[in-house]
Amino acid sequence: MPNPNPMHKERRHQPFWDTLIRGTPGAYLPRATITGGPHRMFTTAQAGVISTTNMEGAGSLPAGQTYLILALRVFLYFRQVQTAAAVVLGVNLDTTYYHHAISQLYFQLFIANKEYFAAPAWYMPSGGGLAGDVGGHATDAFYTNGTPSHASILRLARSIKLTPFQNFHVLATIATLGAASIATDIDNMAAGEVSIQMLLDGLQLRDVL
After folding, report:
1. Residue 85's Cα: distance from chain center in Å?
2. CA–CA–CA angle 173, 19, 97 (5° rounding)
3. Is residue 31 part of a domain?
4. What is the number of domains present in the chain?
5. 207 Cβ contact partners less than 8 Å away, ≥ 6 residues apart
6. What's the pTM value of the predicted model, to 2 decimals?
7. Which residue from 5, 28, 156, 174 puts its CA 20 to 30 A from 117's CA?
């Protein structure tokens, strides 16, 4: 339906997010594994599961909307992670998983098949999340990517504009370090929770009906 008031626009601060992997062993969304890849993100519309994405369309903005990307964020979350061997020993591997994820994950933003930005996960702090430790075997387990403060996010030197129906996506790549692989780590999980998400943070301009 065309906008009856094309000169009237609403501007709001609203992040868009998508998920690389989230869930517990045997119940991961939106994919069962992150082995292989690279994996495309922001290419699936929300289907009633806001925990994985809030995208209205698959890989583009709908009619009447533009978006200015002002910041990029990567959220990492591991809780009470155990392999089968760790279950027997009664130890958590949260810290190991955090270290592997932060050192191996890379993200590239493409708009109309042109790369606009690329950086490792550690370069894009989440700017939120819990801070502290869980005690016991995970006394140094970090709960977020970087300091959980909005002052610590990656603000782009120049904003990146998305226009209606313009295709865009993010490629998530895992570059293994030595014998370690966060993808294999997650495949080997017997217990625990994992969430790896990316947020495009900025200003949404949309029609006022």
Report:
1. 29
2. 60
3. no
4. 1
5. 3, 5, 6, 8, 9, 10, 64, 65
6. 0.87
7. 28
